[in-house]
Amino acid sequence: MSLPPNFGQAFDLSSLTKPKVDPATPMPGIQVSVENLSNEILPLSRVRPVIILMWSPRSPESIEMVKTLGKLENDYKVAFSLARVDVDSNPEVAQAFQTKSVPFAVAIIAEQMVPLFEQSYPEAQVKMVIDKVLTLASEQGIGQAPVEQIEPEEMEAMEALESGDYIAAEIAYKKWLARKPAENLAKLGLAQTQLLIRTEGLDLNTVVAESAVDPTNIDLQMKAADVEIVNGGVEEAFTRLLTAVRASTGDDRIKVKNHLLNLFALVDPSDPRLTTARKELASALF
């Protein structure tokens, strides 16, 4: 990895406040400096991927990210190495990685830099990023790709879904969530399964026609939205329920809003249709 010509310029720390952690507090990972970047960090990246986090003792979010990555380094049995750059103490290194804010993470694989993320994320999402880093590294002959671990309840749910037994799949996902309440895959699986239960045997054209005859019936509108989204009509479903939110009040409005939020959870967070619908829902409510 070649360092940019502006290596050594100052990193702008003006947006940060007073320190949130004692600088003497031990932090996980290798502390990166100008001195060890070339003679320790880069050579290490040829043995296993190195995830470097730019952080500051004045940024609570970046402090938490250091701790999260430190925990994951142990969980992954050092399949990757964590390194950290205190941007207060080493602005030259921060500038070398073109850091604009903290937390900011990059991966170094075979001395090549791969940008990762520029904000704080929950552990589950960070794990997904790490899995991709390990897979990319393995493709270059460094380390091994992560072995996918399937939870027993997930296997049970998948088998039930394959056989068309949606009720059994719902029970399996609920058991998984009872054991791991924060498991996002279980939440998504449960939401998808419950949608299948609600729409089983329903015909799209029939339900949409019924909803058109009685547009003020919110139960019909929610049923139509369910059938639309299961048939790929994401925008149609969102528009239908946004219209219902605007037209309703009190408990009915809350009911439609909550149903719409459940449908939001089924769509990729990066989908522009979801972004637009969230803005429209906020506008409708406030």
What topology, given as strand order, has the largest sheet?
Answer: 1-3-2-4-5
Number of domains: 3
Helical fraction equals 40-55%
Overall mean pLDDT stands at 89
Query: Which topology of the largest domain does CATH recognise?
Result: Glutaredoxin
Global geometry: elongated
User: Which regions contain 5 or more consecutive residues with pLDDT less than 50?
Assistant: 1-15
CATH homologous group name of the largest domain? Glutaredoxin
- Classified by CATH, the class of the largest domain is Alpha Beta
**Share in β-strands:** 5-15%
Number of strands: 5
Radius of gyration: 24 Å
Main sheet specs: 5 strands, mixed
Amino-to-carboxy terminus distance: 50 Å
The CATH architecture classification of the largest domain is: 3-Layer(aba) Sandwich
Count of individual helical segments? 12
**Structural class, judged by helices and strands?**
alpha/beta
SSE succession: EHEHEHEEHHHHHHHHH
Can you walk me through this structure?
The relative contact order is 0.08. 55% of the residues lie in helices and 9% in strands. The longest helix has 17 residues. The protein folds into three domains: 110 residues, Glutaredoxin; 51 residues, no CATH class; 86 residues, Alpha Horseshoe (Serine Threonine Protein Phosphatase 5, Tetratricopeptide repeat). It has a five-stranded mixed sheet, with helices on both faces. The chain has 286 residues and is an alpha/beta fold.
